[in-house]
Amino acid sequence: MRITRTGGGRGRRAAALTTTVLTASALLLTGCSSDDGDSDASDSNGNITLKLADFGQFGYKEAGLFEQYHKLHPNITVKEETTANEQDYYPKLLQQLNSGSGLGDVTGIEVGRIKEVVDTQAAKFTDLGKTIDVGDWVSWKEKQATAADGTVIGAGTDIGPMSLCYRKDLFQKAGLPTDREAVAKAISGGWEDYLKLGERYKAKAPSGTYFMDSASAMYNAVVSSSAQQYYDADGKPVYKDSDSVKQGWNLAAEAASKKLSGGLAQFLDPWQAALRKGQIASVVCPAWMAAQIQTYSGDDFKGKWDISRAPGDTAANWGGSFLAVPKGGKHVKEATELVKWLTAPEQQAAVFKAVGVFPSNKGAYDLASVKTAKLPYFSDAPIGEIYAEEAKSIPEAVLGAKDGVIKDAISTQINNMEQRGTSPDKAWKDATETIDKAIG
Asked: What is this structure's pTM?
């Protein structure tokens, strides 16, 4: 994920992986295309600059991929234009699409926005299905970016398979299991078991600590494990009647009422400070979250964190993005080839190693740099194994045009239950009123 992003975020500094070193030759060769010299040149020598517009931290710069691509294509320079906050980035992207100016040659799209873009803006993007083997991605990733006429407007970058990050030392002090397999067994019955574990933690909690950081984060994890979330297959908002939303909301309300959570809105300063002070015992952990925890917990807590499988036996995905190529760009062919290369297995593996975001390209899962990946900070947790296994069984979720808006409104009201003591009934009423006004 990114520094900040709808429904999630990424830290500026990546969690370091212990993996087999990715060879330079593999990195350079896979996904490459020949430069036939007939591109639209930016200067008299045939040199062009491709602008890649994205948000937060996609990891390409950190993995050295732009420099590698320039070595393969000496006439092409890639310039990344990054907006820190996706909530600032997306309105700007829509404005650029509507005006036809200011767009990047390649542009990032967050999963919470992809359905709206597919439904309303698909004609403005290049069909990547004609040049990229979209079957290389996990199947549901392709479908998320596919328009009604079959065009594929976005190439899958990362996904967010779920796990649970927890502090072994705090669990031990509270009399809870600390071994990652034992923790997984304790929550094997699902998120209800996770709350039961939280009650056990609270009974003997070290002073000043909380079992979880945020009930809204748990809510997002619960909803993310379901095929039906906020919309039905016909594009109708069904969030008020969605079983996954009801389950997530009720669990969040229970966590808030029992004060199992610190009530900390993720990624904001108080959340960062709580991690830095060692006050949080567990965090719902999509793949990209580990980098955030390592960044803000700091060196003092290295080896005290670990990673277990997520509660229950239903896999979940939280987060992920796409790269798209606007049709109106000056260098559509070259931009498309860049996207093809950046989303090939070896390049996605390199990004995973650099910043910890998990590949959507299935071909990366068998590469040693992914398959054997471990996180030293998290007690050498075998994250390559954990996330690859989770990714295989994630349900194909129905996406809606305003998923991000709905998720944000509900999360805000869960925070209000935690922080202000708002009753569940009033919080739900406030959430639905905000959502209904926003989606019409």
From this structure: 0.84
